[in-house]
Amino acid sequence: MSDSGPVAASAIRRHAARPHRTRGQHRASWAAELSPLLAGTQRRYTAVVGSAVAGASIVAMATGAGLPSEEREPGTSRAVADIAALASEANAPVTVADGEAPVGAAPIGTATADEVARTERTSPVTGQDAQIEWTPMLDDITITSLFGQRWGRNHNGVDFDAETGDPVYAAYPGTVTHAGWETGFGNLVIIDHGDGIETYYAHNSEVLVSEGDWVDAGSRIANAGNTGRSFGSHVHFEVHVNGEPVEPLSYLSEVGLDLR
């Protein structure tokens, strides 16, 4: 006993459990003070305190982020409930309203480096063939006769001035369906371009292709001449659509080749 009254039993137990303390004001040495930290009991206290601090930090973050923390199972601490809520949020699918970007995402209209790289890997560029253009059938174009009535009959093509031997070119890609003599036309080349379109090149002095040959636009197919029903060296050119001759200059103008 002391002058102040009987010593409480809890005080006795506390001093008994911690022998490095004395009942007076004397403090034990620092070595004695720190030694319990190495004991299993003290380490357990430290772990509990550390967990509490971590839980408090997570609760603070959840509160700052506005995450719900009121609902939790009975007997579960607030820290454990908040940790579970954070894990649930991390695994939940992200829903984005129209015109909005998810929290932490790059602004709308921008792409991160990873997104750009992923797009390059999965979205190969699809190339398109260049549009094929119609080309002149002679190096120099001089019109000498037009499509229409002539000498009591229809002149089904247009005539271009040319010297014998001048190169004659295919106006458009296609397959040669006729290469040789044809009454009235002399040496004639006919090219089928598909879709019912054919072109005729007549009065040639020499034919340089054969039936079945594929020719590209600008390929040399013949040399100009004065064969067949002709009154001078020139090239007679026709365009047929579905077997019927059409006015060549208007047709060529519509497909992008204006020779007038």
TrEMBL record:
This is M23 family metallopeptidase. Gene3D superfamilies: Glucose Permease (Domain IIA) (2.70.70.10). It is an enzyme of class 3 (hydrolase). Keywords: Hydrolase. Pfam families: Peptidase_M23 (PF01551). Residues 12-26 have a biased composition (Basic residues). Its EC number is 3.4.24.-. SUPFAM superfamilies: Duplicated hybrid motif (SSF51261). It comes from Glycomyces rhizosphaerae.
